[in-house]
């Protein structure tokens, strides 16, 4: 099929409209034909090829705008019609919300979701969870955390959608006094942030892990560490 497609493209290049050229280009890309070869066939620069493709992507999005709400909704829809998936739009226009704004401006279709997520995790904690998943995914050839976040909106929304609301467990709350008691109890290792990190890393304890996140989150938290330490030295 591909040799015949190339032959037809060479013979009738002058008759190809931009949309048809974009479709042929998409087929060639999906068959791993090198970009340089495609540019040579059509006598186009890389910028010209990119312009054709982006024009076609925008046209498809406008013709199907009611499905261009979330990456997950779009991917479910286009799977039936062999339209470009969300990652193609991400490649050309950036993250999903940026792509929507680039194509539709302020009139972009609203993100439709019935999932309500409470801010139960800090940014640092979500980063750690995602890192753990990515390490597991790399060993087993699974999608990375960013793939789930792209489809469902955020990592936490993907957990709720797949496993239900019960999968999001509220974090234990600690007062300043309770944290101080824990620090005093383990004061032999409460010397520097680095030494505390090493100690906590060897312990399988939820409370110590909570402190671990606090102490490694940044300069402000580290200053709190030393202030707490000075209070009982």
Briefly characterize the structure.
This protein has 233 residues and is mostly helical. The protein is built from 14 helices and no strands.
Overall form = elongated
Q: What count of helical segments does DSSP give?
A: 14
Poorly predicted segments? 113-119, 204-210
Helical content class = 55-70%
Overall mean confidence score, pLDDT: 66
Decide which structural class fits the backbone.
mainly alpha
Taking the sheet with the most strands, its summary is: none
Order of helices and strands: HHHHHHHHHHHHHH
Quote the beta fraction.
under 5%
Q: Give the tally of β-strands.
A: 0
C-alpha end-to-end distance = 77 Å
In the residues, how many domains can be counted? 4
The Rg value, from CA coordinates, equals 26 Å
């Amino acid at each position: 099929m591909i040799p015949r497609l190339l032959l037809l493209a060479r013979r009738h290049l002058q008759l190809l409209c931009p949309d048809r050229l974009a479709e042929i280009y998409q087929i060639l890309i999906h068959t791993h034909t090198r970009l340089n070869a495609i540019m040579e066939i059509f006598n186009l620069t890389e910028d010209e090829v990119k312009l054709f493709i982006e024009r076609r992507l925008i046209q498809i999005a406008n013709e199907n705008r009611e499905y261009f709400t979330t990456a997950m909704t779009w991917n479910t829809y286009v799977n039936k019609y062999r339209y470009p998936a969300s990652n193609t739009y991400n490649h050309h226009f950036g993250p999903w919300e940026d792509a929507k704004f680039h194509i539709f401006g302020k009139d972009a279709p609203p993100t439709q979701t019935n999932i309500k997520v409470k801010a139960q995790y800090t940014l640092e904690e979500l980063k750690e969870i995602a890192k753990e998943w990515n390490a597991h995914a790399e060993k087993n050839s699974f999608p990375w955390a960013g793939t789930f976040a792209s489809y469902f909106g955020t990592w936490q929304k993907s957990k709720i959608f797949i496993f239900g609301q019960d999968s999001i467990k509220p974090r234990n709350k600690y007062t300043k006094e309770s944290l101080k008691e824990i620090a005093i109890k383990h004061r032999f290792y409460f010397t520097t942030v680095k030494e505390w990190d090493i100690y906590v890393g060897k312990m399988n304890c939820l409370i110590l892990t909570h402190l671990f996140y606090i102490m490694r989150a940044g300069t402000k938290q580290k200053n709190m560490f030393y202030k707490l330490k000075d209070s009982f030295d």
